[in-house]
Amino acid sequence: MSVLEAFTFLSFWALGLSLSRVEQSQISVSAEVKKSVDINCKIESTNFPTEAVHWYRQRMNQALEHLIFVSSVTVPAQSQIGGKSNKVVARKNSQTFTSTLTVNFIEKEDEGIYYCAGCDSSRWIKIFGEGTKLIVTPPDRNLAADMSPKPTIFLPSIAEINLHNTGTHLCLLEKFFPDAIKVYWKEKNGNTVLDSQQGDVIQTNDTYMKFSWLTVTQKSADKEHICIVKHENNKRGTDQEILFPSMNKEVTTDVCLKDTSGTMQLQLTNTSAYYTYLLLLLKSALYFAIITYCLFRETTVCSAWKRS
To answer: Which domain holds residue 228?
Structure first.
């Protein structure tokens, strides 16, 4: 290999390593009106000190808009939005390979998802992070209160395991705020994210709840599994890791619960009854609306016929 060929190879190799990942670990941040908030982004790049980091915002039912970009690690970039100077300020930290966007003078109109993006010089494209949702809270919302997700676990029944050779781990998360939440599953000491089912986030009064469940096959019956919960208000800012025992252990546990108090079965029964009641209530309301409409229409037709 000639010197020129070697230089060309090393140049393309370096460009290929220029930008490998853009990560936004905050799924949401909450702030009150007139306050300020920081949104962070980590970029794995060999040219981070000189590369530009871009910030975007997408508000509800609106197109993605470019807010600002910062290229220097010593001089922050500032931008005027809505007639206010320094509305957004972007910085770079070469020691931590992070960029921080500060949104000042928070208003309700600032709600949206904020995206960080870096430039991949090998393909001349931008790589975006997953986004961070900015939530503007009312003044009477007590952000100091414990608004982290409260988990309740439900284990597979013996009948399910014996009949289908599978088991369903169910994780119920309640009484959290804000609604932005991410739930995924892994085997204990494993790195692979498993296929799982996710229920919708449901509002209950002024907080939220969510279901997530994992179907475990006989092949993984001896494995312990973890339900991982990412939320803004988790204690100490770390992800919750909720351990589910292996199905082999669950069989023994299930027998013990049946012989004693049956706590897990009672919880599942109560929860199922609650949602069944809500479903029946909604169906009754729908039937009532349909019958009322039909009666009203029949009365109107009869009145018109009599007049004619």
So the answer is: 150-244
Q: What's the token pair of residue 226?
A: 């973890």
93 and 166: one domain?
no
Each residue's pLDDT tens digit, 36-81:
999 999 998 888 888 899 999 999 999 999 999 999 888 899 887 8
Number of domains in the chain: 2
Residue 163 lies in a domain: yes
- What global pTM score does this model have? 0.71
Same domain? For 161 and 129 the reply is no
| Residues 234, 28 contacting (CB under 8 angstroms) | no
Nearest residue to 184 (alpha-carbon basis) of 210, 154, 164, 165? 210
Longest dimension (CA), the chain: 102
Assign residue 111 a region (left: φ > 0; alpha: ψ between -120 and 50; beta: otherwise).
beta
The answer to whether the CB of 119 falls within 8 A of the CB of 216 is no
